[in-house]
Amino acid sequence: MANFVNNQLSTLCFKFSGCILLIFSCLILMSLSVQAAPEVSDELKQLRAQMQLMMKRIEELEKQQVEKQAIPVVQAPVTEEPKKGKGVVELMSENTTLTVGGRIQMNTYYDWEESKQGHLAYNVRDTRFWLKSKTKTDYGLLSATLELDLSGTAGDERTSNSHNPRLRHAYLQLGKISLGQTNSLFNSIAAPDTISAAKDDVFVRQPQMRWTESFENSQFAVSLEQPETTLTDSTGARITPGTDRFPDLITRYTWHGDWGEASVAAMGREFRNDGAVAGVADEAYGGALSLSGKFLFFDYDDLRYGIAYGNGLGRYMAGNYFNAGSINDQGQIHLLSAIGGHIAYRHWWNESLRTSLAFAHLQIDNDDVVPDTTNKLGQSYTANLIWIPVENGQLGVEYYYQRKKVQSGLTTDSSRLLFTAIYEF
Amino acid sequence: MKIDKALLLLVLSLLSTVFISSCVSPVEKQEACEASEHSKKLKILLHKLDTVVFEPTYSELERDAYKMRYAGEISKIVEAMVDKQQDKKVKACGISLSPQQEKLFEQLSAQLHAQVQQLIEQVKLQQTEVIKPQIIRINQTCTSCHQQLDIITP
Prior knowledge:
The complex is a heterodimer of chains A (about 425) and B (about 150). In chain A, a hairpin with a 5-residue loop joins strand 2 and strand 3. Chain A is an alpha+beta fold and about 425 residues long. In chain A, the strands form two sheets. Chain A has a 16-stranded antiparallel beta barrel. Chain A has a four-stranded mixed β-sheet with strand order 11-10-16-17, with no helix packed on it. Chain A contains two helices and 22 strands. Chain B has one domain: Four Helix Bundle (Hemerythrin (Met), subunit A) (Up-down Bundle). In chain B, helix 3 packs parallel to helix 5. Chain B is globular, with a radius of gyration of 20 Å. Chain B is built from five helices and no strands.
């Protein structure tokens, strides 16, 4: 556009200059060939006046051209201040913010048992990566989270240790509704602050649909979660028929205050075998209750507890240490009552150094169907010292002792010394 | 169902640890001005906010919920502090200010009030990622006021 204007102005100037030259030449010729008559003198005066006007006009146009060339390029105005915050990337799409984060974690552990040589191992399989997005919608804030870790198929320790990624969380949240895979609503709300999970660990991660209602100092939630029947047959093998029809129904109520927090949860489940054993169909209904929470002490310390009981616990406790029930050779299901709990005290020596002492216990009432090798009882004792040298980073050392007992009464004790380094980014 | 004796023993030993810790706890109860009480609560809440990332089993969903709760409590406390300061100025802590200092105090107090309102809005909009930077800004305003007016931090 600027170039076009410049060209036009240049052409105009050239034409004006030509005209002036012509007029000037005519004037000289006229002054030479014709005697100055009074009428000619008047014409000359008019021509001079016209020439002055033209000269003035040319000067104005030249001035305008110079001014146009001097105008700087105008920057597009910044209409919105960029969003700021830790790990925030503003996307091109409107109203969406993407947050990137994760964790680098390295564990080093040395395991030993009474009658065996020890074993040393290193891994970074708890390393995680997540993406979170938040979008404003007409129905409220829509947030989505995707999180992976490296605890998938283990890599080759000989050469590259290329552990595979594994899905941890993938869910959407819109107001009171959450959909997708995340921690089960039945999980303990106050697990011990230890590097190794307590033996009774009430923990499952699975797809679900959840409704959450928050109040001033409490919260109510209900969810429908992925069902999965796990049963022990007469050989001790785990049977997972995969013929479930109803979701696991879980509800939880949580209170919190200056004193700490407490939570009760209840769960109802259907267990079903549709011909996987003996070609017979059978089903059973069970459930479980849990109480968990923590009391705060001396500003920073806390006492954490959790207890769960029921005939439907199964895979929800201790990484499926027990199955929910047994299935006999005739394909009939019998649910087994189990109980588990933990208590842990966390003490802060100062704002960056802490220790946790934890004890966990779980046991099950096995029936005659299951063989003598079936798990009967488990216990763990944990003590650690964890230091936070930098914001979001910690180094910890932990001693973990566990006892396993099977139906025959055979007991196995093992120990683990563990060192961990974690940095959350 | 027979409960293992070890469970009972461990529960007792942990409860004993709690009792002993309470006897030797280094934290002193102080009866200072209201600001010191608020300051102590804020310190604890900020510590919780900083360390929630280390909770072993929480998902991002749960972490965010705790962050929101702690940030909400922080904003309430700071808002209450600002309101009280506007009523009583800092005389409650036994400090008298010159007219110039009082002007400065009012400016910083207004700034603090605006920052707290922003934090409340951020909590309402669940903007977890901007909460910590906002709390740092609030802390800077508090520190600046304490430094410029020679107020000893409780």
